[in-house]
Design goal:
By secondary structure, the chain is of the alpha+beta class. The chain has 5 helices and 5 strands; from the N terminus they run H-H-E-E-E-H-H-E-E-H.
Length: about 120
């Protein structure tokens, strides 16, 4: 754990994490929520379309400090990315910069999960 922490600190200092987001070309905004937004993007090398959830660190800190909770979505996404389950969205990578957490996932063609659930019959 400590080794990973120092490894990531070195990569951040070298600007590696900032360069990772540049691998993706934004196409359009898919949605927006209280803590950030989701964009449709294309990976420059593979040309694959992905969804990138961009979560604002300042908004997260403010909300979670007020509730006394810890933000665990990034860690959960990293753990879920190691699973191969048909019922979970595939997480390709997670990273962060000074202001945001980024979660890169497969693009699901059905659209917004909340809207889908609301459209289902009772």
């Amino acid at each position: 754990m400590a080794q990973t922490y120092w490894h990531e600190k070195i990569l951040k200092h070298q600007g590696f994490f900032n360069k990772r987001i540049l691998q993706y070309v934004p196409i359009s905004k898919l949605g927006e929520g209280s803590f950030g937004r989701v964009i449709l993007a294309e990976h420059q090398n593979s040309k694959a379309h992905v969804a990138i959830k961009i979560i604002n660190k300042a908004k997260i800190a403010q909300a979670f400090e007020a509730n006394g909770q810890e933000f665990i979505e990034l860690e959960l996404s990293q753990r879920l990315s190691k699973l191969n389950c048909d019922n979970l969205v595939m997480v390709f990578e997670t990273f962060e910069d000074e202001d945001n957490y980024c979660i890169v996932t497969e693009l699901l063609q059905a659209g917004d999960l909340f809207k889908y659930v609301c459209q289902q019959p009772d």
